[in-house]
Amino acid sequence: MFRIGIIGSDNSHADAFSKLINLKNPKTGEFDYPDCKVTGIFGLEKERTEEVAKNGEIEFIASTPEELVGRVDAVMIVFRHGDLHAKYAMPFIKLGIPVWLDKPFTIKNSDAGDLIDAAKRHNTILTGGSTCKFAYDILMLKNLVENGGGRLGNIKSAMLNFPATLENDYGGIYFYGAHLTEMCCAVFGYDMKSVIAHRLNKDVLAIVKYDKYQVALSFIDGSSRNCAYVVGDKDVILRDLDISLVYRHGLDEFIKTLRTGKIPVSHEKLYATVELLNAIKESYESGREISLKGM
């Protein structure tokens, strides 16, 4: 039995993950992850933490993260603000306890690098990021790109649209923007060369440059439709992006990681997504094209 701790209760993701693990599937009457249980939770807001614990049938509420040590075999850190992630992840990484970090993986490039270095040094599982990269539509587009474009022929350009807000209490563009950058990397690759971005009012348009094509990322405040448009020299494809099952898809990958010890996305790729979002912000604030260097 894998005992999992939830750290951070302010996010709806805390509800989603604890219910998927601890409650029986209403359609099958069985547990989807019979070898897993959320056994404890820590949050910064007492009433909200108690609410998540009740809804997800979590037996133990910790008054400090340290109280979870010895009670859990892994933790999922799901604070809304990505700048909290490194602070709460590092102690568990140093203890060799597997860590899954919600989106954004981190806000600062340096935090991502420090966590990854620590995970390698202590031989600790570290994974996470946006679950949207595991959506079926994203995997379909990824397969299309990796297999040479199929009926599209040679891919020339693409556009991905997803909602984002630049003004919020959780880091601005990082709060929702991580979904879009991670979907871009999952489909078109993690070997971006540079990015140039522009902000107009509450929206941002970024052009991510690869060796063979460019991808436009449209961060639109209040957008109600998520879609991808891919252009080849023979055909084009317009596809809506269904993210309704991504909590389960992301959790599937984490549980698989606990069972096998193999992370679904390499540390270098996780770092690349953090670097890309920071480069986008730097570009629209400075008006300059920003090169991407990787770890």
**Which CATH first-tier class of the largest domain would you pick?**
Alpha Beta
What is the fourth-level CATH superfamily of the largest domain? NAD(P)-binding Rossmann-like Domain
What do we call the CATH topology of the largest domain? Rossmann fold
Order of strands across the main sheet: 12-11-7-10-9-8-13
Keywords, separated by commas or semicolons:
295 residues; alpha/beta; Rossmann fold; Dihydrodipicolinate Reductase, domain 2; 2 domains; 7-stranded mixed sheet; 6-stranded parallel sheet; 23% strand
Structural description of this entry:
This protein is of the alpha/beta class and 295 residues long. The chain has eight helices and 13 strands. Strands 12-11-7-10-9-8-13 form a seven-stranded mixed sheet. Strands 3-2-1-4-5-6 form a six-stranded parallel sheet, with helices on both faces. Helix 4 (109-121) packs antiparallel against helix 8, helix 5 packs across helix 6 (173-188) and helix 6 (173-188) crosses helix 8.
